[in-house]
Amino acid sequence: MKKILLIILLSVSITSICNAQTSINTKQSLDKRDTWTQKDLIEPSDLAAILTNAKAKQTQIYNIGVVDNIKGAKNMGGASEQANLEKFKTALSNLPKNTQVVVYCGCCPFEKCPNIRPAFNLMKAMGFSNGKLLNLPTNLKQNWIAKGYPVEPK
Fold first, then answer.
1. How confident is the model at residue 7 (pLDDT cuts 50, 70, 90)?
2. Pick from 117, 130, 60: nearest CA to 94
3. Would you tell me how many other CB atoms lie within 10 Å of the CB of residue 118?
4. pTM of the model
């Protein structure tokens, strides 16, 4: 009888541990999942064109990473850090919800970037209807700077 009880307890413990690990892995995969669609992306050439006309003043650009500033961008620092995400939230809270907002990082490929998901998700959660993610699938250097698009002088 003691052996059976011990086997049952071990089975329950192992099942609980496996379920907890699955729950942790699911949350981690959700945190890394892309929450944007193709319509949420803006191409570098399109943003560069905006920067050369009068619409530039109507578009708010936020560097939410640790890379060079695109011309006119406001540097928030890496959005993976809570303090920088709060700084970004404060900046957004002063804007009308229909403002065109563009966020970018470009430190590394999208799938590895720790900054774009928290910033993009915050922008969407705050109700910005014209929020965009700059499509930098490789990095800022290759997808923006190498193409001659404007950056702030260092």
1. low
2. 60
3. 19
4. 0.77
